[in-house]
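Sequence, please.
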């Protein structure tokens, strides 16, 4: 095959799209990435103002081995593209009434913390983390790096033996409650479910493996922010020959006889552009591609399918430039309400703006002072909320004030009068900037029936040469997960096109 038979058009320059593009270009295909925004990174892009550089989306760099494995395929390491630092503490947890604990970067330190939180807590944690490590190894070794095409791929012998050990049918909250009585200990072991777009009461117990990720492997930070990973992937992709077309909105994937033949787009000046293709890799929000870019006859998952999904949360985000040092904050800070189920209920059961939210605050200037002018703090506040909530200017203004008051109470520090730069980003922005279904930040939740083979397929069932990667597909939500998906989808495209 020569290059003109191996033209791959990637729709969307999210982490997953760029990683797959790099991989396919290395294999000799001619790859063009078409992105509607004027930057790469997708949810991992930046906003810059007044000398502040804000990561707009992800801020936790977890599972470093996934990145190492990915870059190794090119004979590279992440260090060739960005500099990583391990955070110490990994993060700080605030429980209200002025109580805060640092979660140390070393397992011995975490053990001591749990021993302080509840009787016999250290020994209980040892046992829990031993199981979490086992689950993690099984997940990485057996389940994450596999594309599931049919339910039989999923329910194979390994799944039936290892899956039971992973406790796929149990729920995380119940499993944690059986072992830990202190709510603070439980919250540290369960909060990461929000990263997966689900609640601890609905998340399968196998996701205990996330505690291996944050408590045993540690939390890292790439200097320059998580967008440094996006920039690194762009450079890697360009080194392999990938062409990027930014500010170019894909409006249609045209098909003939069940095959995509052309990706139609509007360029930066509004002019129509057509990209002929031998394969399309859609990294944009899956629901948008299916319901808006494809003709009804080519659509495998119509609106009624998406209406029935458990949609992952949207987010109320505030990017704040603060004109003073905030002494009480660490790099990553989590605030947990005593009764956090009330907050989860407003996300998954009775959608509403939460009155007493749990939230996350990052202050990357603690590690990377370059991200703000001297003497200032770069503060990012994230409140998970239900997708599809009413997000008007008035609601935002009121909620912003309320949220800043919450953060002030949490830290015991005055913040509002010192804010010199501010931007709010909410459900309507996720919908407008990324075409996100109902303004979701994270796609669909990781409930049992939206995991592995039950996630939307990586290959279209209607269009033979249309592939999907990104957080809606298996293995799911999060930067490391979409890097894994990139590897899987690249293999599918290679298989479909044959050697380049
Ligand atoms: C606020 C926030 C915090 C997060 N925190 C973390 C974290 O700390 N750690 C972590 O690992 N993960 C985190 N995540 C999740 C992680 O960011 C995502 O799972 C991941 O980045 C999604 O990547 P993706 O490849 O699916 O692409 P996306 O980032 O969804 O990118 C898709 C791209 O497609 C483009 N596109 C859409 N429609 C079109 C069109 N018609 N034409 C052209 N282009 C189009 C979009 O503009 C976008 O650039 C966070 C997410 C958010 C929103």
């Amino acid at each position: 095959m020569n290059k003109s038979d191996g033209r791959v058009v990637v729709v969307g320059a999210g982490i997953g799209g760029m990683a797959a593009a790099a991989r396919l270009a290395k294999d000799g295909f001619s790859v063009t990435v078409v992105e509607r925004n004027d930057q790469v990174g997708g949810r991992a892009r930046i906003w810059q103002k007044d000398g502040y550089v804000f990561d707009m989306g992800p801020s936790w760099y977890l599972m470093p081995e996934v990145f190492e494995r990915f870059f190794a395929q090119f004979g590279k390491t992440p260090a060739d593209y960005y500099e990583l630092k391990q955070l110490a503490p990994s993060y700080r947890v605030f429980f209200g009434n002025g109580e805060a604990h640092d979660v140390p970067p070393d397992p011995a330190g975490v053990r001591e913390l749990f021993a302080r939180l509840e009787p016999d807590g250290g020994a209980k944690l040892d046992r829990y983390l031993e199981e979490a490590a086992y689950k993690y190894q099984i997940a990485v070794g057996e389940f994450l790096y596999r594309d599931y095409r049919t339910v039989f791929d999923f329910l194979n012998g390994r799944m039936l033996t290892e899956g039971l050990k992973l406790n796929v049918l149990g729920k995380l909250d119940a499993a944690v409650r059986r072992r830990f009585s202190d709510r603070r200990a439980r919250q540290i072991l369960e909060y990461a479910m929000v990263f997966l777009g689900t609640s601890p009461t609905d998340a399968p117990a196998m996701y205990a493996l996330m505690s291996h990720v944050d408590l045993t492997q540690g939390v890292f930070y790439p200097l320059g922010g998580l967008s440094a990973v996006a920039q690194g992937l762009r450079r890697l992709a360009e080194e392999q020959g990938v062409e990027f077309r930014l500010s170019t909105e894909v409006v249609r994937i045209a098909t003939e006889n069940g095959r995509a033949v052309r990706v139609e787009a509007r360029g930066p000046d509004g002019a129509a552009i057509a990209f002929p293709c031998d394969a399309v890799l859609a990294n944009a929000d899956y629901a948008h591609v299916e319901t808006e870019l494809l003709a009804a006859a080519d659509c495998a998952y119509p609106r009624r399918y998406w209406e029935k999904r458990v949609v992952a949360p949207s987010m109320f985000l505030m990017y704040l430039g603060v004109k003073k040092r905030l002494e009480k904050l660490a790099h990553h800070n989590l605030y947990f309400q005593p009764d956090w189920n009330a907050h989860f209920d407003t996300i998954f059961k009775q959608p509403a703006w939460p009155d007493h939210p749990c939230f996350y605050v990052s202050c990357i200037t603690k590690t990377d002072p370059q991200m703000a002018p001297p003497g200032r703090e770069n503060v990012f506040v994230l409140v998970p909320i239900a997708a599809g909530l009413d997000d008007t200017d008035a609601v935002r203004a009121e909620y912003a004030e309320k949220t800043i008051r919450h953060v002030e109470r949490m830290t015991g520090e005055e913040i509002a009068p010192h804010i010199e730069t501010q931007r709010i980003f909410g459900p309507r922005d996720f919908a407008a900037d990324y075409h996100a279904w109902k303004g979701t930040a994270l796609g669909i939740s990781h409930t049992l029936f939206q995991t592995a083979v039950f996630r939307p397929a990586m290959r279209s069932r209607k269009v033979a040469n249309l592939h999907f990667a990104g957080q809606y597909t298996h293995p799911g939500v999060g930067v490391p997960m979409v890097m894994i998906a990139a590897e899987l989808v690249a293999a599918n495209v290679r298989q479909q096109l044959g050697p380049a």
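The longest helix spans residues 121-144.
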